Amino acid sequence: MPVVQQGQINTNSLFVPDVYVQIVPPAQLLLNGVATNILGIVGVGSWGPVNSPVTVGNPTDAVLNFGSVKNRKYDLVTACLIAIINGANNIRAVRVTDGTDAAASGVLGSTGITFTGKYTGTVGNSIVASLAPGTAANSWRATIALPGIVPEVFDNLAVGLSGNAVWVAIAAAINGGSSGLRGPSNLVVAAAGSSTSAPTSSSVTLSGGTDGAATITGSVLIGQDSTPRKGMYALRNTGASIAMLADCDDSTTYSAQAAFALSEGVYMIAVGPAGDTVANAASTKATAGLDCYGVKLLLGDWILWLDTTNNVTRLISPQASEAGFLSALSPEQSSLNKQQQGIVGTQKSTSGSGVNIYSEADLQTLAQAGIDVIANPCPGGAYFGSRIGCNTSSNAVINGDNYTRLTNYIAYSLNAGMGKYIGRLQSASVRAQALATLNAFLSNMWQQGMIGDVNNPQNQPFSVQINAANNPPSRVALGYMQADVTVVYQSIITKLLINVMGGQSVQVTVASSTPQ
Predict the structure, then answer these.
(1) What is the rounded average pLDDT for all residues in the chain?
(2) E-assigned strands of 113-245?
């Protein structure tokens, strides 16, 4: 009495009398949307793996993985913290270096054990490795300590051993773990030397660690797309829907960022140099040929941020504030006119020129050029927020934040979920199932208010076609099944026009006040 999955037996070729049970999956296959809150950030750090995405969900994660906040350009932890302040909670952080980074090291017992930081960076210069007698008789205890985290203790090592075997056993425990409860060190790698002398109670502070952050350029942040991927390209296949190269104000990187945005379905947040002018920003963008819905370009009006770690108010790129805020928004929304947090001021708002707000002419130039800016005031009040809400496309119907993010959300959700139909027979029932899957996904979006037609709110704002009309026999014979999907996006209000007529002679006839 076999029990099999549907399709695992040929039901037309059964000869043995028996009961055959086939487990049939649900006819209607549902798909869930891809995550839209994953933010990719590339920058420099004082610890952690290089060119390898690390998940950061809160400030503690950022500091433990990459070191404390540094008062420097391109700092990864700074960018993470500002993004988190503005709502980011699912970051893929990538550390880059200029190639001069080095791991800290230190030696115990002359040639006993050499300890080397697990990662390069100046954080390693605070690691202290020590040896002392263990709890058990004739044993040793190794402790690896770093301020701010619980020390790693490896106890009862090298019991009863002597000579070089003691050093070898201690190093092996540090690298491989000393028990089921004490795994390998997360801070150092140990290498036993040639010493045959017995250990003594001693300690060493590692030194020589460097960050490799002195000569970072736009090219380093961009990285390489060949294996092993580096920089921005290390974010491939991480699911990031928004990404930024921390403080990268190099316009020669715009084209690479645009190409990556379109290939990966990522909304790249770019920026101009600190103190840039409106006219120069527009000219630079035009010269760079940046006209892409996948990139948001912020004017180089950098923001002031209170760095409590270093007790200084710093000038930093507005990218992290904008990127973190966008990552917390549902994809049909825009950052336009929404308050961002943690901003003390901007270069413009704190300028001593007496002109510290943007004129209508400035804002019109930025809007026409497809450049956004974080400014105060916003239309909604005296707070800092995105003033334009645009991407860099010159096409007026696709140049909003919402178009980029919602289009990527729909496209990549379908790409992730519809692959289940590959390899199946193109039958009427399978077509019906695919149609139902697409309709269910879009219906859920409609029900959640992510799509809709405001002038016809009762009308379904999407259509899906999978039938003989768009799947002729010549295409079916080649293995194609085509689904044509159209979706109505809700627009973002960017201009509110109010006509007011008042006067002593005006007569008012009260009519329905229900919006139409």
Answers:
(1) 95
(2) 113-117, 128-133, 140-145, 152-157, 188-192, 202-205, 242-245
Instruction: Tell whether pTM > 0.85.
Output: yes
Distance CA 225, CA 54 (A): 18
Closest Cα partner for 438 from 458, 413, 455? 413
Instruction: Tell the burial category of 232 from Cβ atoms under 10 Å away from its Cβ (0-12, 13-18, 19+).
Output: buried
b (16+ CB within 10 A) / e for 120-137:
bbbbbbbbbbbbeebeee
Task: Give whole-number Cα distances, 406 to 93, 103, 375, 451, in Å.
Answer: 23, 43, 25, 9
| Rounded distance between C-alpha atoms, residue 349 and residue 338, angstroms | 17
Residues 255-294 pLDDT 10s: 999 999 999 999 999 999 999 999 999 999 999 999 999 9
Q: Which pLDDT band holds residue 10 (cuts at 50, 70, 90)? A: confident
Q: By the 8 A CB rule, do 46 and 71 touch? A: no
The whole-angstrom separation of Cα 226 and Cα 94 is: 16
Give me the architecture of the 105-205 domain, per CATH: Sandwich (2.60)
Task: State yes or no: pLDDT of 28 exceeds 70.
Answer: no
Q: What's residue 185's pLDDT?
A: 97
Give, for 410, the enclosing helix (H) or strand (E): helix 401-417
Q: State how far the Cα of 173 lies from the Cα of 184, in Å rounded to an integer.
A: 7
Domain extents in the chain: 39-98+215-402, 105-205, 425-516
Domain 39-98+215-402, classified CATH 3.40.50.11780, yes or no: yes
Q: Is 39-98+215-402's fold the same as 105-205's?
A: no
Q: Name 93's bridge partners.
A: 41, 54
